[in-house]
Design goal:
Layout lengths: L2 H4 L5 E2 L7 H26 L2 H32 L5 H23 L3 H26 L4 H4 L9 H22 L9 H18 L2 E4 L5 E3 L4 H10 L1 H18 L6 H13 L17 H27 L10 H28 L2 H11 L5 H7 L5 H7 L1
Antiparallel strand pairs: 1-2, 2-3
């Protein structure tokens, strides 16, 4: 059924496609990423104690540097092949350099000053990038640029779907994230920047590119899912929203404003729901299950957004005699489900490590108030008081 889309002639398999400089670079980056991951896993297995701790710090810096290098190389090739216009290339390149430099700085020396400085620099670069994106997509007819016309789009269905989708995501974030820590601090901002950057870098490492948009990547959603687990789904939804905006100018396929909302910011906002079971006490001892269930919820949310977009915006490409809803269901299943499955498998493997779980739970555990801590401290007996004197 949905494998027909994966086997179509206009579907691109990047790891084995070398028909252009950009695709050659993507293929090389794909296999280098596999080699890097295997090398890190081997290093973890061969080290112990302080040696492993030092190795992981070096590995973290290497991963950040590699991710930024991949982004820059693929961005440059894409620009040279007219894939990204100049108004998006310059701010995006700046954003990648700033995020990479700040992430390495935090990895080397994590302090309040470095976190605040990194948050300010990355925030400024991100705002500038989003402004440039708005200017770019605010000009021209997006439908004509994508070989269709506005009359082919079900405008009413798109607007109703977009409004309901936004309301559903906001309601879910407010209700299930009601116990999350309020507001962004320097740590949550810095980690949000790094996780968004890592997801964006991994999104360039595509296994398959679908003909009408969408791709299967190497666990590109895992950093965003981990961020949601660490800092709560409210912050996770916001991080996913920002990531969705960045996806819009990485590989834009936009026909309609409401379709843009469904396919980009709203769809990836759903990834922020991955932390929905992070504080479920009944699952506290099985962190992989906590993550896996949350990732399934996040993946289904993203799938629904793409399904609605495909049904109302891209129904003109449905084969003759095939219902539009079935066409969208088959097409979206061809790439969304495998992409989510890869992210779930990788995330569950990470959360199978007790050391990893301890690290991420440092942020998603609400510390008791001083008064509560004092109340929980057992009172000293007169004998103990006298002995201390």
């Amino acid at each position: 059924m949905f494998f027909n889309s994966l086997l179509a002639d206009d579907t691109t398999w990047y790891p084995i496609t070398f028909d252009s400089p950009l695709n050659i670079a993507r293929g090389i980056c794909f296999w280098m990423t596999i080699a890097l991951v295997l090398g890190i896993l081997l290093g973890v297995l061969m080290t112990r104690g302080q040696t492993r701790k030092a190795f992981l710090k070096i590995a973290l810096i290497a991963v950040i540097g590699f991710a930024c290098a991949v982004c820059i190389v693929l961005l440059v090739f894409s620009f040279l092949e007219d894939g990204i216009v100049a108004i998006l290339f310059a701010p995006l390149l700046t954003l990648i350099v700033v995020v990479g430099g700040c992430a390495i700085l935090i990895a080397l020396r994590r302090s309040k000053l470095t976190l605040i400085l990194s948050g300010c620099l990355i925030g400024a670069a991100l705002i500038a990038t989003l402004v440039c994106m708005g200017i770019h997509f605010g000009t021209g007819d997006a439908a004509d640029l994508n070989d269709t016309v506005n009359e082919d789009v079900n405008t009413l269905g798109l607007y109703i779907s977009a409004v309901l989708a936004v309301a559903a995501v906001v309601a879910a974030a407010l209700f299930f994230g009601r116990h999350d820590k309020k507001g962004f601090d320097s740590a949550s901002i810095a980690y949000a920047s790094m996780c968004i950057a890592m997801s964006f870098a991994l999104s360039y490492l595509r296994i398959v590119q679908m003909p009408q948009g969408g791709s299967i990547t190497i666990a590109s959603l895992v950093p965003l899912m981990i961020y949601s687990y660490m800092f709560g789904i409210r912050k996770g939804v916001i991080a996913g929203f920002i990531y969705g905006l960045m996806q819009a100018f990485q590989d834009p396929y936009i026909l309609h404003p409401a379709q843009f909302l469904l396919d980009y910011p709203v769809a990836f906002s759903c990834i922020g729901l991955a932390g929905i079971f992070a504080k479920t006490k009944a699952l506290e001892k099985v962190a992989p299950v906590q993550f896996g269930l949350g990732a399934i919820v996040a993946g289904l949310g993203r799938f629904v957004m793409h399904f609605l977009s495909g049904m109302f915006a891209f129904g003109m490409w449905a084969p003759e005699g095939q219902p539009v809803w079935l066409y969208s269901l088959i097409y979206q299943s061809g790439y969304v489900l495998p992409d989510i499955a890869i992210a779930i498998v990788v995330g569950v493997l990470l959360f199978s490590s007790p050391a990893f779980v301890r690290q991420v739970r440092k942020y998603n555990t609400v510390k008791p108030a001083p008064a509560a801590e004092a109340a929980e401290t057992p009172a000293e007996t007169p004998g103990e008081e006298q002995a201390q004197k």
